[in-house]
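In line with agreed milestones, the collection of sequences with tokenised folds has grown. One record among many is set out beneath this paragraph:
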Amino acid sequence: MDKSSVVRSLLDVGIRETRLREALDLVRERKVSVWRAARMAGIDYREMLAALRVHNVPFPLSARELKRELDELSRNQ
């Protein structure tokens, strides 16, 4: 590989990592959905779910969704 190919490859990796990092930050701040973050990062939904796990970003739930989940858990006990 020549130098310019290596540089282009490194830039591509850096850009993808930056997009992913920015998308993960927006999910963490609850500013975008997981679907939207995946589109922003240029990856599919499953890859974004994996990235959430790898980077310890909790899956965002609204207060209403969280209450419904807790209610269901308490009914099942």
User: Anything to note?
Assistant: The chain has four helices and no strands.
